[in-house]
Amino acid sequence: MAYYAIAPLMCVLPLIQNELCMHLFLHQAWGGPTKNQYAVVIPPDSPNGFGGTAANDWVITDGLDASRSNTVGRGQGFTINNSLSKFSFYTSFNLVFENGRFNGSTLQITGVLPQSANGEWSITGGTGELALARGIAKFKAVQMSSLSNVYELTLHAYYSPMDSCGNPVATCGESWKVGTTQDGITV
């Protein structure tokens, strides 16, 4: 018996796709009283700090000044220095929403943080209200200091609320078995 089952997804209505646009600010601090990024691997004798790894729990707000803005969520993940010759970090984090409509939902964001401090990351997934998310997160450094950076984020994504399809042919669970027939379809 197979360890998986595949069934066609037939919806009474087309699967709904919601478009999401957000304007947020990511506060990265590797020093000072608001430190939210810690080095966990510091390789000795590597060129340009290659392989250096940090864990992060960045604050994400709806305004530039974190002390006068609403905290929307946290950017929880890691960065790895991935270049032997230049400042470049592979970054992967979950944007974990902490309040409002998206409370408890996440967006998975990944990409490279280059020395220019401007660019795009991929939105490769999501959970909760933001299930099956995909899109881009554009970022631009708007404040830089010796202890911290603030990035302006523009998120543009599409997602499919999991309850947006009528009655699926099959559901995961006890009644869904490989090789059984449900509504005339063998799964």
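The above is record 1. Record 2 follows with the same two-line structure.
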Amino acid sequence: MGIASLCCMLQVDKSEKNIAFQIYSETSLVDKILKETERFVDRDRAENHSGLMIVLRELLLNALIHGNNNVAERHIKCRIEKLEKARLRVEVEDEGSGFDYQNLDMRLPENPCLLERRGYILINALSDSIEFNSRGNCITAYVTLNQEGFWRGKSPQP
């Protein structure tokens, strides 16, 4: 495994089946993780990984904003593992105190203009399954890529 350091705030550890990151809680570093992840997934010629990118972005921003409360000195760890041809395990952990994930409402809000809970609704909709650690500061999402795109072969209804 090789370790590369970008901007001294982003550590990347890559192998054939895994890529891991550790960053400080800085919004600008989220895009760097997304670009590195795209390169990692593109090595296998994945045709459509937009669902993965949305899930990863939402997980990272949630860890940064809600988990670490935008405290720049706090770290976020992220690990992506290739499980089988088009299935990935995405784990994001922050240094926050966690939250009560068992009472998390994943239903769409009645008012579509509300921004609250939108991240977890997207993560849940675009993942095969999600898991939380007991503390609630680490979430694991299982995402399957496919050629039809992140709608899993279903077109959104007009």
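DSSP finds three helices and seven strands in the chain.
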